[in-house]
Amino acid sequence: MDSRRTHSSDVLDGVDPRQVVDAVERVVAIASIGGTPAEVTAQEFFAQAWTDDGFDVDTWHLDLPDLTTRADFPGMEVDRCAGVGVLARIPGTGSGPATLLLGHTDVVPPGDLSAWHTDPFTPVVADGQIIGRGTTDMKAGLVAAWFAARAVHTAGVPVPGDIYLAAVSGEEDGGLGTFALLDRLAARGIDIARCIIPEPTDLDIVPANGGALTFRLIARGAATHASRRREGVSAIEKFALALTALAELEAARNGAVDPLMQRWDVAYPLSIGTVQAGDWASTVPDLCIAEGRLGVALDETPDQARAALEQALAALSHTDPWLAEHPIEVQWWGGQFAPGRTDPAHPLVTSVAAAHEQITGRVPAIYGAPYGSDLRLLVGAGIPTLQYGPGDSAVAHAPNEWVSIDDVLTCTRTLITFLISPDLT
User: Fold this and answer.
1) Neighbours of 79 (CB within 10 A)
2) pLDDT (tens digit, 9 = 90+) per residue, 105-130?
């Protein structure tokens, strides 16, 4: 019998649920909102924790001026003056393929604090849940990966290839951390054979993501006193024409979608997130600025998606004399997430599915997700990658974000089973 199977129960029994919960609480208490100093603090937390565990830890300061000016930089929506990369290695016993477990430590702002039942960054454990900003997206998943690697390391179970743990920042607004990590891996000659990102998937397997492109629309009008409104042109009313055109575009782009995406009512959403117009109630506004997000289909290039939106808005010039002379301007900025996929038949997918079934008795669903993630950067670098983690993405950016403790522990045990599987040589 393979020694890894012999030691499987010992490794699983070595995970202390109380320590896992405590670790999630400690990292959630770091208010690592993207672009704030705490983003670096969260990275430093993992660097120290992994050093204390006896891992071989590499930390480095991100060269932001170089990274952000490169042609292939994936975009950024917040200002940063510093960034830190963290990569830990748990040596394998042979020359087998290396596995990367990667998670991001940055979180989105908490939003309206009155909608929270607790302080977002004072985690609360109640009714089998941990509540707080970043629990689901995705600090609990990163802790699960950490404790899985830690259990294998502590038990001394032989694994054929190195295990790497990476904590990255800047995922929520483009992927800065993973972009920098890929540089670091290349510079150090580290060949990663596969990657698991424990993003919230409700413990299903997500081997594909649609893309997401951030855009800005600028509609111009002609200002005048509101009492003479017909002598002016309302930029808001012209933007309303764009809204109709964008709704029609979204419907057309979702008429027929890839089988991996068919579980979603709208696989590739097109939405407006902010609208700013006018500066006085009794003035016809001459400027309306809106920002939104365009979903990119699997196997579609970002350039093709951009062209579709630009063409839909340009077509308005044929229906409106004002827009013929003053077309709505489109700007592309911030996070530019391409789509990405790993073949559902890839051994990485089937092996994680088998490990999950071994732990839970349930065959996980396999599907693509309608949001962008760091998966596409890794797949783009030739690294087969999937998402598998605790939590529901529906609560990820919502008030009272929470994660099930049982799901965090199940994820940890599944990852352990995957890492020590004799079929992964």
Assistant:
1) 7
2) 999 999 999 999 999 999 999 999 99
CA distances from 255 to 295, 297, 313 (A): 14, 12, 19
User: Between residues 9 and 52, which one has the greater pLDDT?
Assistant: 52
Contact partners, residue 131, CB within 8 Å, separation at least 6:
117, 118, 123, 124, 125, 400, 401, 402
Phi and psi torsions of 295, nearest 5°: -75, 140
Q: How far is CA 365 from the centre of its chain?
A: 19
Q: Report yes or no: 192 and 185 within 8 Å, Cβ to Cβ.
A: yes
**Cα-based torsion angle of the residue sequence 89, 92, 95, 96 in order, rounded to the nearest 10 degrees:** -90
Same domain, 187 and 297: no
d(CA 48, CA 26): 13
Domain span including residue 219: 211-337
132 and 271 belong to one structural domain:
no
pLDDT of 281 above 80 = yes
CA distance 357 to 206: 15
Do 24 and 39 lie in a common domain?
yes
State both tokens at 103: 């998670």
C-alpha 217 chain-centroid distance: 24
Contact 324, 317 (CB under 8 A): yes
Which burial class, exposed, middle or buried, applies to 307 when counting CB atoms under 10 A from its CB (0-12, 13-18, 19+)? exposed
* Spatial distance between the Cα atoms of 322 and 311, rounded to a whole number of angstroms: 17
* pTM of the full structure: 0.92
Closest alpha carbon to 124 in 412, 407, 400 = 400
